[in-house]
TrEMBL record:
PROSITE patterns linked: IG_LIKE
GO molecular function, one term: axon guidance receptor activity
Keywords: Disulfide bond, Immunoglobulin domain, Signal
Name of the protein described by the UniProt record: Down syndrome cell adhesion molecule
Naturally occurring in which organism (per UniProt): Trichonephila clavata (Joro spider)
Amino acid sequence: MFWSTVTRNGVVEAQGAPRIQPFLFSKNVTFGQTIKTFCSAVGKEPLSFQWHKDGLPIYNSQNVKIVNHDDYSVLSLTSVDYNSPGNYTCIVKNTEGSATYSAELVIHGELEKKKSYFSTEMVSNISQTIIKFQLCR
């Protein structure tokens, strides 16, 4: 891939296909944590950023926030859970080509179990009521 810089009016501009600065996730991520990673790239602007997890595109949602800038993108994962681990890939494209870089997110520890709002007795009573209702029909 061709890549170079050009100076115009005292400003250095990157040219060519994108090149991504390697990124990593912390090795000490635990369940419930909020984490961020940055994908920065050089190349002829404008650069277009996209994130994938395990080969599928990811988008902004309740627990995922992606903020793209001219030459970098920030991926934030809020309150990581069992769905969070995997391979995250940053894809950068421009008119000259594209580049990808992937990093694996591993989470350590166990996810705290949430307390049930229903007691065993309540569930049993609800089940009996449903059975009685079905028998009466």
